[in-house]
TrEMBL record:
Protein name (Swiss-Prot/TrEMBL): Malate dehydrogenase
Signal is among the record's keywords: yes
Superkingdom to which the source organism belongs: Eukaryota
Signal peptide range in chain numbering: 1-18
UniProtKB keywords: Signal
Transmembrane portions of the chain: none
Length: 272
């Protein structure tokens, strides 16, 4: 019997195959691939990681982007942070012996996760957890319905990610904005002490063919984030957010005044 997730994965792979993503990896020692950071294929790309840095982890993040509108007349919603659960997909990188996916399937992971997995957060409205399907999205709810429970956004205990046909993908940690508004990545669940407190350094628009998400509002930008220099980080010097799906806010004229959240997925590449 073929898994429904694998059937949908095949359809989503076909849908995203035309979008520039990760390039074929070069080969390192003992046949292990040397992962290549994905590129948008546009006129402007994110600056590459410094030669002195090494790749620590590749994660899939699934959660929400948070926004606020002071009034319905505001031109654009103001970003107020994000919440996401992170899963370790390092071993799924194409070319990895025994566990690597095809380049097409790997690049499709954010879209696959967005549409086949419920939001892994404690939501104020549990009915918002399901994305629906690309042909019938769960988009009738207001942006405010996708918000997480304040003070308790993450389920405890955390669960691994289960996609049909694959071994469970290990829970890696959480992404959130701290009390000072700094983007934070806590990867210490993996046992190697990685923790990032970063600031935005660069951003480029997601490719035009990117998955527009549950609300059809578009994919959030690709970003390069760097250590903020406060000394709070441990082992994480740079973070790249790439291959994004969903997450853009509705116009304030549509969402109205107040706070809202938009489901998204992305890949995060961690360097240190």
């Amino acid at each position: 019997m073929v898994s429904k997730t694998l059937v949908l994965l095949g359809a989503l792979v076909a849908a995203v195959s035309a979008v520039p993503r990760c390039k074929p990896a070069t080969t390192g020692s003992a046949g292990a691939p040397v992962p290549t950071l994905p590129a948008t294929g546009g006129a402007t790309e994110l600056p590459p990681p410094a030669a002195s840095l090494s790749l620590k982890r590749i994660a899939a993040g699934h959660g929400i982007q948070n926004y606020t509108c002071a009034s319905s007349d505001q031109a654009k919603a103001a970003a107020t942070g994000a919440l996401a659960v992170l899963y370790d997909i390092t071993s799924l990188y194409p070319g990895t012996p025994n566990t690597g996916l095809s380049a097409e399937a790997f690049n499709a992971l954010p879209t696959t996760i967005l549409w086949t997995q419920p939001l892994p957060l404690n939501l104020q409205d549990p009915s918002a957890a399901s994305a629906g399907t690309p042909s019938d999205p769960n988009n009738a709810l207001a942006e405010s319905s996708y918000g997480a429970v304040i003070g308790d956004p993450f389920p405890n205990p955390a669960a691994d990610l289960v996609l049909g046909g694959l071994a469970p993908i290990a829970y890696l940690g959480h992404h959130y904005f701290d009390a000072a508004g700094a983007p934070t990545f806590d990867l210490r669940a993996a046992g190697d002490g990685l923790f990032g407190r970063v600031a935005k350094a660069d951003g480029v628009a997601a490719p035009p063919a990117s998955d527009g998400g549950v609300l059809g509002t578009g994919a959030v930008d690709w970003l390069r984030l760097v250590d903020d220099g406060t000394g709070a980080g441990e082992g994480v010097t740079a973070v790249y957010r790439v291959i994004t799906a969903g997450g853009q806010a509705e116009p304030c004229s549509q969402s109205g005044a107040g706070s809202g959240s938009v489901p998204y997925t992305a890949m995060y590449w961690f360097y240190g």
